[in-house]
Amino acid sequence: MSAFQIQDPDYEARVRRTFAGQMALATLGVTLTRIEPGTLELKMPYDVKFSQQNGFLHGGIVSAGLDTACGLASYTLMPAQADILTVEFKINLLAPAKGQTFRFVGSVVKPGRTLVIAEGRAFASDDGREKLVATMSATMMTMRRQG
């Protein structure tokens, strides 16, 4: 069970709507596989269209997956009338992103009223074996909507 305080009991539907509105993720084939307060998981199949010159998933795509996972994990803890915006992130590419599928997990480290600190982990799966390929540290901002 999560120790985080939920500000919006309908957070899951709000997160799903926000995810569905991100057309870049649909283009990449990213799916939302798990939502919990302060944690979110995305999956993506390998597609050569998103590879770099050696056939590995491009670091920019890994970055997009982690940024989204960290952002939406943070968004689960925000108020109903909030929106989310990335302030900054740092990514460590630990190993070539080589696999048949990829999993991006975002987790809140410290929620705040305006800023949320999150961390992400990217995993590549190949023939049932999973390998950590990148980590991210991210700061997300709560944007309060008027009205």
UniProtKB/TrEMBL annotation:
Listed Pfam families: 4HBT
Protein name: Medium/long-chain acyl-CoA thioesterase YigI
NCBIfam families given in the database record: unchar_dom_1 (TIGR00369)
Catalytic activity: a long-chain fatty acyl-CoA + H2O = a long-chain fatty acid + CoA + H(+); a medium-chain fatty acyl-CoA + H2O = a medium-chain fatty acid + CoA + H(+); a fatty acyl-CoA + H2O = a fatty acid + CoA + H(+)
Cited InterPro entries: HotDog_dom_sf (IPR029069), PAAI_dom (IPR003736), Thioestr_dom (IPR006683)
Protein family membership: Belongs to the YigI thioesterase family.
Record organism: Afipia massiliensis
EC category name: hydrolase
Key words of the record: Hydrolase
